[in-house]
């Protein structure tokens, strides 16, 4: 019939036995078939090995081991980043492992599962983790009640994190190198250059190339003994620097605030500095004014008021004998 289309018997047989099988074998259709049978995978890429997260909500007077329900040492909401496939009709469960003990498996609610906008294909899980460590997070994917993939994170801790700044005594300028004494290595140092965490044996990663000993392994050991939680140190100190070189628009200060942003949360800045200001004969008022400015600018960048703990660091007996100028700097630190 003119102007119409009619499927003949021959055409119908051609479609059924030739064309449809050909289309089924085509790349588009076979890709769909393969994707529906894709092997489920899950891979944990964060936390980093030996990373320490700052604890919060601790209650010091209830932190003793015989407190009913356990010591109230606080916790951190730890972000766990993972890559995974086979997301349809799957659920994620997790449990914590510490000291060869594990918690019960728990399901994650939807509000704890976030897609990372700046990392395509990456998902973030937010998990409340009590102070302590080393922990590992075990994850498993379940589909239709069956476990289809599993993964385990690198060991990490929840405890006390400090940002170290200043000059020589804050870096590796001591004669003797020290080793971390904690048998489980719960004192770690953050290397901001390659963003790794390692046991804090001397020399420390810092803002300079010093390679001697430091105060930080003994400091960390004492903290672990006192509080029973891991300790993390991020050191940006540079030897022989004065407060005039840490001005807020300079490289040293900008690195300090940048590393603070990398840490995201930490207990305090530990400021070990003063000898070079004795040499420069910095007035007490000037020293104090500079430190107040440092903290104010850092707080503005970090979005939170972070305490600064200052060492009375003025002694340098092999370089000078300036008792009156040492007193000036120590008085400034006392005032601060």
Structure, described:
By secondary structure, this protein is of the alpha/beta class. Helix content is 26%, strand content 28%. The protein has seven helices and 16 strands. The strands form two sheets. Strands 2, 4, 5, 6, 9, 10, 11, 12, 13, 14, 15 and 16 form a twelve-stranded mixed sheet that branches. It has a four-stranded antiparallel sheet with strand order 1-3-8-7, with no helix packed on it. A hairpin with a 4-residue loop joins strand 12 (187-191) and strand 13. Helix 4 (251-263) packs across helix 6. The protein is elongated. The termini are far apart. Mean pLDDT is 87; it is low at 1-5 and 18-36.
Percent range for helical residues?
Answer: 25-40%
Average predicted local confidence, pLDDT: 87
Assess the beta-strand content as a share of residues. 25-35%
The SSE order reads: HHEEEEEEEEEEEEEHEHEHHEH
Rg computed from alpha carbons, rounded to a whole number of angstroms: 29 Å
Number of alpha- plus pi-helical segments: 7
In angstroms, what separates the terminal alpha carbons?
Answer: 100 Å
The best one-word shape is: elongated
Stretches with pLDDT under 50, minimum 5 residues: 1-5, 18-36
Describe the main β-sheet briefly: 12 strands, mixed
- Total beta strand runs: 16
Give me the secondary-structure category: alpha/beta
């Amino acid at each position: 019939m003119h102007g119409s289309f009619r499927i003949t018997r021959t055409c119908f047989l051609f479609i059924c036995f030739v064309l449809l099988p050909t289309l089924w074998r085509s790349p588009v259709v076979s890709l769909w078939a393969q994707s529906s049978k894709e092997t489920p995978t899950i891979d944990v890429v964060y936390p980093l090995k030996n990373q320490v997260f700052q604890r919060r909500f601790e209650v010091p007077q209830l932190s003793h081991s015989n407190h009913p329900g356990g010591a109230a040492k606080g916790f951190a909401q730890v972000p766990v980043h993972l890559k995974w496939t086979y997301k349809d009709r799957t659920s994620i469960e997790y449990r914590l492992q510490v000291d060869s003990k594990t918690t019960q498996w728990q399901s994650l609610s939807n509000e704890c599962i976030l897609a990372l906008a700046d990392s395509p294909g990456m998902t973030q899980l937010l998990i409340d983790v009590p102070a302590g460590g080393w922990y590992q997070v075990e994850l498993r994917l379940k589909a239709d009640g069956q476990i289809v993939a599993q993964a385990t994170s690198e060991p990490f801790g929840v405890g006390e994190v400090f940002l170290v700044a200043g000059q020589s005594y804050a870096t590796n300028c001591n004669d003797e190198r020290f080793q971390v004494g904690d048998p489980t290595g719960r004192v770690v140092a953050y290397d901001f250059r390659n963003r790794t965490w390692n046991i804090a044996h001397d020399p420390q990663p810092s803002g300079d190339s010093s390679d001697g000993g430091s105060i930080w392994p003994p400091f960390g050991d004492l903290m672990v003994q006192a509080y029973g939680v891991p300790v993390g140190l991020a050191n940006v100190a540079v030897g022989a620097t004065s407060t005039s070189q840490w001005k807020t628009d300079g490289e040293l200060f900008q690195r300090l605030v940048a590393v603070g942003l990398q840490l995201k949360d930490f207990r305090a800045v530990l400021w070990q500095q003063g000898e070079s200001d004795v040499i420069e004969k910095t007035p007490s008022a000037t020293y104090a004014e500079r430190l107040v400015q440092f903290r104010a600018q850092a707080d503005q960048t970090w979005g939170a008021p972070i305490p600064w703990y200052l060492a009375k660091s003025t002694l340098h007996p092999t370089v000078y004998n300036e008792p009156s100028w040492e007193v000036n700097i120590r008085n400034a630190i006392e005032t601060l």
